[in-house]
Amino acid sequence: MDEMESPLDRLREIVARLRAPDGCPWDREQTHASLRGALIEECYEVIDAIERADDANLREELGDLLLHVVMHAQMAGERSAFTLEEVAAEVCRKMIRRHPHVFGDKLADDSAAVLRQWEQIKRTEKGKSAGILDGLPTSMPALLRAQNAQKKAARVGFDWPDAEPVFEKMQEEIAEVRAALAAGDSKAVEDEVGDILFTAVNLARKLHVDAETTLAAATSRFIKRFQAVERELGDRKMEDTPLKELDQIWDRIKHA
Fold first, then answer.
1. Can you give the pTM of this predicted structure?
2. Of 26-35, 118-127, 237-246, minimum mean pLDDT range
3. Is the domain of 13 the same as that of 83?
């Protein structure tokens, strides 16, 4: 590596070499679409490093994520669509444009004001026909998409004043599931269960809890306790153990 060359320039050269006619067969076969799954995986690995407060791993995973950015820019450049420089230039313009309280003469006293201003500017950029919930990716995890939709709606005042009405809404949705079950309407059951999940996300938001990370933590707790039950059973098969006994073991582990 040339001492005068930046690591980012070196990374671009490496990616370009991998994509060259005499480069790596696997890298040359990749497209924007083929890398979608790997990109999502890298994002989750970054999040995992953050949750574990592992700076060394975070640095590594951010590098992997940066590699994807450079790879996508390289593929776009090969078909003369855009370059990495244009990607960086566009996000620079966007950050300046959407932070007029820093780079301009607007005022924003707190984070809530910043977010409201951000949404207003974003809608202006998209045009008069742009809706408040336009642009929410359908490929986003369902729980995260629900949470983001609710946050965007709340920023323009479409929201409950506090958590209490959400508890009432949750009870209402549970009753509707029971009614759908009693009626034998499987489609209605599916719809109403979806409404329960959506309301649970709303409750988490009103209690200032991140639904995505909270559910991830709950799932991890379940796995940990389930594995502890397996260890306590030893050579006995879980499917041959009475449910009452499994519940007793579970409760003991949970309160340990």
1. 0.69
2. 118-127
3. yes
